[in-house]
Structures are given as C-alpha cells and as structure tokens.
Amino acid sequence: MSARVQLASIAGVILSLPARLVEPAMSGIQRGLGIKRMPWVFLLPNLVAVVLFALLPVFINVFYSMSGSDRLFPWDRPFVGGANYQSLLDCTNYLDPSTCSRDLFWRALGNTLVFVPVQVICMIAIALLTAICLNRDIVGRGFFRGIFFFPVMLSPVVVALTWQWILQRNGALNGLISAAGLTPVNWLVFPNTAFFWSVFVTVWAHMGFYTIILLAGLQAIPRDVYEAAKMDSATPWRVFTRITLPLLKPVMLVVFILAVIRSVQTFDELYVLTGGGPGSATMLMVQYIYEVGFASQPRNFGLASAASLFLGLALLIFTGIQMRISRGGNND
Amino acid sequence: MLAAAPVTTAYAQQITVWAGDTGTGGKIFAEMGKAFEAENPGVTVVVEEVSYQTLVESLPVQLEAGEGPDIAIITDLGGLSRFYQDITPYVDAAYFEQEWGQTLQWLRGGDAQSTAIYGMPTTLTVNGAYVNLTLFEQAGVPVPAEGATWQEWAEATRQVAAATNTEFAMEMDRSGHRFASLAISYGAQLVDSEGRPVVDDGLRAAIEQFVAWHQDGTMPMDLWGAVGGATHRELFSDFLNANTVLYFGGSWTLAQMDSEVGDLFDWAVVPAPCGPSSCTVMPGGGAMTVFSHTQNAEIAGKLINYYAQPANLDHYISTEVEIPSAASQIANGVEYPSASARTSEALATFINQIPKMDAAAYRFQGWRYQRAMMNALTTRISQVLNNELTVDAAMERIEEDVNLAIQAAGGQS
C-alpha cells in the first residue's frame, strides 16, 4: 500500500470518528424522546444562540431603557420606570420638533421616516432597472455586473470619504462644474442638497447587492413565457407589468424587507459624510442613539436604549406594512 | 525622590499603555519604557498606538466594563475621573504638586478637597490663531497688534481676503473647545464654582457674533454649518493651502505647519484675540493616567514617576515639539532642536498666552461635564446657523443638554 493511500485511510478513520460517536448517542436520544421530538434536538443549539444573542439583549435593552445613570452594569443602574420614554415623548406639538424636550430625537425620527421610503424606493427602482439591463445579452455583461457590485465590497467609511472628496467645496464635482464654466455649489452645506446626496451615496453604495438578487430572480423566470408574449405581440411595458413584475414578486419582497432594514440602520456613511448636518438635516435615528449612548460624556445608556426600542418599533411597522401589501397582492 | 527606586518583582508583570496617534504616537514612551524595563527586571512595558477616536469613544466604554489598558494618555481629564487609580504612594507627590499643581486638579473631577494624584499631565495644548502674513503683505493691510479684538481681526482679515481674492477671512475648528475661547473672551462663564452649567449674556454675545460671521461670509459654513451633531471637524488644510487668512485651531498643528508649509508663505501664530471680557484662549492637553482596574498599580505608578523625571520629560517635550505642562519647564523653557525658527517663535507665542488665560477657562477645562457642554455647543450652534433654532432656544437647549448629562451621571456635579 502506498504512503498516500495509507494517509488517506488514516484521515478517513479520523474524520469518521465523530460520526461513529454521534450516531449511537443520537440513537439513544431518539429512543428516549421518540422520533416526533427529534427536531427539537436539532433546533436546540440554534435556539440557545438566538435566545442568548438576540432575545436576551432585547430584554436587557428594555431594562436599560427603564433605568438611569451612566453606569454600565445593570446592578449599578437605578430603576427609573418610564422616565426615559417620558423624556423622549415630552412634546407640546408633535409636528414641531422644536417644542419637544428631546428635539433631536424627533428630528432624527422625522428624517428617518422620510429617508427610508425615499431611499428604498429609489434603490429598488434603480437596482431593478440595472438588473433588467444586465439580464440582456449586452457586450461586456460580466464586466458591468462587476462594476455595479463593486461599491458593495467597499467599507462604508471609504465610500463616505470618497464622496466627501467629490462633494466638498473644492471637491472633484465642483472642479468639473467650474471647468464647464458653471457656478460651483457647496453641496453639503444646504439641507436639501445634503439630503439628496445622502440618499444618492447610500443608494450608490448598496444597490449592487440588490441588483444581484433581482438579477437572479429575473434569470429564474422561464424564457418561454417571454417567447409566448412576443408571439402575442405584447409591448415591452405590458411584458414588464404582466410577466416580469408578478413573477419577480417573491424576490422583490425579500429585497424590500432587506432594503428597509438596511436603510433604517443607516449610520456610518452619513456620519462620516455629513455628521448628521447641516444642522440636523441628515441626522437619522441610529446616529441619535449613537451620540446619546456612546459619543456623549457622560453616556446616557437609558435614553439611547429607549430610543433604540422606538427604532425597533419603527422597523416592525415598516415590515408589517410590507407584509400587508404583499399579502394583499397575493390575494388579487 | 522615588524615581530611581526599582520595583521588586518576583514574577513577570506587564503594563499596557495606550497613546494617541498624533505626533510620534507612543514612540518616545515606548523607548523610555525600555529603559524602565532594564531597571526593573521582570516588568514589560507595552506601548500601543491607538486612534484619538478610540481614546475618546471606545476607552470610556471599556473602562466602564472594567477593561482596557493599565495606563492611557487621555484628554478628557475630568470626565474619566472616576476610573482613575490614586498613585500617590508610588510617586514623588511633592514634585508632582510643584510641577503640575493646577492640572492635577483637572484630574480630580471637581473634588476640591482631594489631594490624590491620578497621573502625570504630559503636554499642555493651547488654542490659537494662525495667520497668513504673506496675504496681509500682499493686501497691504497691517497685521493687528497684540490686544486687537475679535472684531478687529475679523475686519482686517475680511479686507485681506477681499484684496487677495482669498476664499475666506476666518475659520475655526468645529469644536466646542475652540468656541469656548471665543465665548470666555466674551464673558461667558460656562460653568460655575459649584459645577453647574452657566448660560449667560457672554455666551449669548459670542453665539450672536459667531452666527453673524457665518451670515456675512467671514467664516465658511463648511465646518460649523455643514456638519451636524457633536461631530468634530477641522479644515486646517484650508490654511495650509492659503484658502483662509486666519485659522483658529491649536498648538498641536505646529509640526504639520512646519513640515507642509515651511517657507512657501509667511505665517505666524498671533496672540489671543480679545473679547469684551478678556484676551483668553483655552488650555488643554493630555495626561497619562492609571486606571483603577489595573492589577499592577504599584508598577504603573512607578512607571509614570519614571516618565515624569525632568530628563525624560525634556526628552519627550523637545522631541514631540509640544508645549510643556510642568511648571519648571514653562519657567526655564525647553530646547526644540528639530524645530524651525518660525515654529520656535510660534511655540513661544502659544506659551505667552498661558498667563493670560481666564480663570473660567481653567475651570471649564477641569469640569467633569466639559465634554457634555462642548457637544451641546457644537450641536446647537450648528442648528442656529441652519435656522433650526433661534439663539435664545439654543441657549435653553445647551443648558438642558448639560443638565441631562449631569442627571444621567446621577446628578453629581
């Protein structure tokens, strides 16, 4: 027997060892619990992980939101009940953030409620358009797929710094504008333009990911459906609305939920690009939570936790609306 | 003096020191740490260079959890006071008091009765204005003399900017610390002797003046206007590229001026512009402190005592080209062999501002809630510049923000 064969057989014995040990153990457990309860045995490791690292932190967060002080450990934090929530909700007029005792929270919440729908709709529309183009037999299709996916691989801080160099007063964009004989614009100084670029930069940075998912969805649609439509002389718009969109709907729902979750969590790009400014024009909820809980001194963990629960609630509402829309669509 | 007393160690002990990434980072402390190790067998000194952001944002969270380095060079001297370890038994306390009497008080978190020694102030930093003398010369405008007011500087720099087609007359770092110089010179107290925030007419006058300079284009919106929240931002590159006539920053950018501008244009650090109340700038600086979670308090204390020895201190300050914080160094001066004549002159100007500093500036610098006030200043003034708040509303918010911070800390002033 050659040395290579010997090594392979030794490796085989070592690799099969866990299986030889696990198999009798699992048989024993199955005999004890019965076959119907076996799925719980396999679910148990994941359940423990979910409880420890997802559910438990939520409950800890709820406790923090009801406690005061800048101390980190729960036993050092006095219980204050709903004081943090009361502080966040203390407003004379909910439509005017300046009348609220935590005005920046309301400005951040308002910005998030505008930013998320605008950014998600823009991103999905552009990603879908790009996916449809990339699904066609165009020259250099692989190259273009790479190009559109490339920003997804960049660190958000790199993305933000790059765009800051482009958009700042003496940046590349104003250089081009000046060269064309036009008046440069200080893009990040005005609330409206800063908000526009916030949406643009985040769409640019993340759309590649959704383009790839949508592209996979488009490629899963059977070709013969399109061929039948072509034989019926259906217009491209009719093909899009009656074939592509309905068949893409399950993928769209996934994309929608992922995009909304990512959008609500937006922080790093905007923190580096605008710091939430001008004023508070691009301050989103996550930045508010970060500033209150981590950037301020002393750190107000209680207020940050309460605000983060509001963020969770906002996410639940967004997801619920999507599920309702999707269910409504399925019933049609 | 305790300095030379070696630490008796039966087994190996390691001390971790965090140093910021400005200047030479922790290179000199690492080098001196080797000499300490040679004198104290079994002791290892590990100096780690970390970003300034890590020191400001991550370190406090780690300390809260009882983690982090044994020693760090920090700048929020009052804010982190409850994490410090008293090293009085391990250092020459009389020497520390003699050299750093006032700055040691900043480390005591507002406890006026305390005599504890929590560390060694490393360098002093001073806010200040850099001006482009070449632009003044080209414009034919005389440089305002010592004692000139902020308004006189604004007027002169506006004339220079107009005559030389320079983009902006004045710029100031987006930093509550920098703004505090202007505010205190306008009479703001910012904090009273009880440790409560003070929002007074001096602060109002300074904010109104600051807003007016942004509205009339004396200052660009890029720093204070375009950014939100507590974000720190500086555009010293504007001064390096001669895009602004005056830049209000601080002594820590001297080395950068020297290396990047050199003789490309004439520049100088000017004496503190005066407000109606005083001609003050803010003191600042770092301190090397020992944290209470350390398992090796004695060695950490002795290491700091070693770094504090006059020869080591001189070596550090002259190599880093920094302003000394030790009284004898300030009185006797420090040689900066690697610095140019212009940088030495600028350092001298910065050092000359120290005796002129207002008592309110020292009080503010040592206040435990200084960072809360500075964050509130940047956030709220930016909102005023963007018409989200009036000056009156901003004043109310600043007070509320700081009171909320005090409340979050359990109401201890």
UniProtKB/TrEMBL annotation, chain A:
InterPro entries reported for this sequence: ABC_transporter_permease, MetI-like, MetI-like_sf
Membrane topology: Multi-pass membrane protein
Record field: transmembrane: 43-64, 113-134, 146-166, 194-218, 239-264, 270-290, 302-325
Cell compartments where the protein resides: Cell membrane
Main location group: membrane
Source organism, top-level taxon: Bacteria
Matching PROSITE patterns: ABC_TM1
Keywords: Cell membrane, Membrane, Transmembrane, Transmembrane helix, Transport
Sequence ranges assigned to domain ABC transmembrane type-1 in this UniProt record: 109-322
Keyword Oxidoreductase among record annotations: no
Protein's UniProt keywords contain Transmembrane helix: yes
Family: Belongs to the binding-protein-dependent transport system permease family.
Protein name as catalogued: Sugar ABC transporter permease
Source organism of the structure: Devosia yakushimensis
